[in-house]
Amino acid sequence: MEKEEKIAIAPEKLEKILDVAQKRFARFGLAKTTMSEIADDLGVSKASLYYYFPDKECIFKKVMMKEQLDFCRQMKKIVASDKNIKQTLKDYIENRTNYFKTLINLGHLNYDIFHEQKPLYASLGKEFYEREKEIIKTILQNAMERNEIRKIDIDEYSGFFVHVLRTLRLYALARKELWEQGLMNKELKQEYIFFTNIFLKSIEKI
Amino acid sequence: MEKEEKIAIAPEKLEKILDVAQKRFARFGLAKTTMSEIADDLGVSKASLYYYFPDKECIFKKVMMKEQLDFCRQMKKIVASDKNIKQTLKDYIENRTNYFKTLINLGHLNYDIFHEQKPLYASLGKEFYEREKEIIKTILQNAMERNEIRKIDIDEYSGFFVHVLRTLRLYALARKELWEQGLMNKELKQEYIFFTNIFLKSIEKI
DNA sequence: ATTTGACCGATTTTGTAAAAAGGTCAGTTT
DNA sequence: AAACTGACCTTTTTACAAAATCGGTCAAAT
Q1: Cβ–Cβ < 8 Å for B149, B140
Q2: What is the pLDDT of residue A1?
Q3: pLDDT tens digits, residue range B58-94?
Q4: Does residue A103 have a pLDDT over 80?
């Protein structure tokens, strides 16, 4: 059974809380963000937060879910645009890098998994991986039905595609020289494009 | 100018020192290995080590260089075996995973780069990357001369191939559950094979 | 139903003294 | 002279306790 809010909560109030928390988490991470700070930002007492949420992790989880949903909604638009697979994947990786700039917590998830081996991070990471994999799966499924690509194990290929995107991003995140100079996203995007081209070539109709 | 030994040193003595240091570094890493321990293992005083080496990093560097050379010598054998590119790359990734089990320091280099951002690690990592890239370059060059693959930018492709191998390995190293159970190498090898197949398909003659 | 200040146990932070580290050198051994 | 060492110096790491802070609870107030 998942942890949820303790009681019913007005949507606009929930949104305000998650909004404030999102900014704090983005800047300082889960560990270095305190409940008092979130409460202060909202202009309420810490105890009030515990009236709505059972613990800090629950708020963090909700923030992450929100970012995940935002991300997936955006990406599903690309799938729905119904272009050929080459253009769809290009659009996908273009938007993926751009959107991670906004959704900082989601973008740093892999990095957090790596540096602190909290089960919470691991489970969030795994869930996000599965979601993204499903989207890529749809893209490949569509392409296969249209005879744009050869017959492949879609589950295997989509899983590997997402996996490589993640590993490339993790590695790029580590090179702080690039990260601080803002060059990271540019380099990472090039790597994405290169990999996508290889990937496409390997599944294209012979 | 590179730091070297202070004075000429008998080869068998140098080898013994590096041998002892290699074992310590492999078990405890650079930071948690002390000069006194290395000296004790050798049955000499700490000051004796400083008679031959200017500092600890220099010993570590030499150990890493030795492992790099061992690795490259082994891998170059595969290139020299002169099989078709498909078999050569398969042999390469097979031996790569296996050989990292022996050369523990080299195998953990990427991991160390990630967790401590020491310039020493970064430079060692970059050098190793360049070396490995050169080997893959040779493989691709041979294949192209034999008309086994289509015309590609060999420098770009070999660089990316090595880059992906590294990122996949880094990620696998992080999942300690697998690492501790010894399943890591098995899973990683599968990822390598999958990627190599994609890679090969993308450069094969049409 | 909602909010809060006071409060609790556990964790983190901080300050610091002792220990151990890297590294040097005058001098001894071979 | 080349090889080696114990004593020594400076910096870093460790160990540990006091203080502060944090996550979380609850009776009382609104």
Answers
A1: yes
A2: 40
A3: 999 999 999 999 999 999 999 999 999 999 999 999 9
A4: yes
Helix, strand, coil share (%) of chain B residues, nearest 5: 80, 0, 20
Question: Could you please report the per-residue DSSP string of B91-116?
Answer: HHHHHHHHHHHH-HHHHTHHHHHHHS
Q: Is the CB of residue B34 less than 8 Å from the CB of residue B60?
A: no
> Which pLDDT belongs to residue B1?
40
| Inter-residue contact A96 to A192 (CB < 8 Å) | yes
CB distance from A166 to chain B under 8 Å?
yes
B166 at A interface, C-beta within 8 A: yes
CA distance B20 to B40: 10
Q: Closest nucleotide to A31's CA, by C1' atom?
A: D22
Contacts of B166 in chain A (CB under 8 A): 171
Q: Is A178 helix (H, G, I), strand (E, B) or coil?
A: helix
Q: Which whole number is the average pLDDT over A158-171?
A: 97
Which two structure tokens, joined as six digits, stand for A86? 């080459």
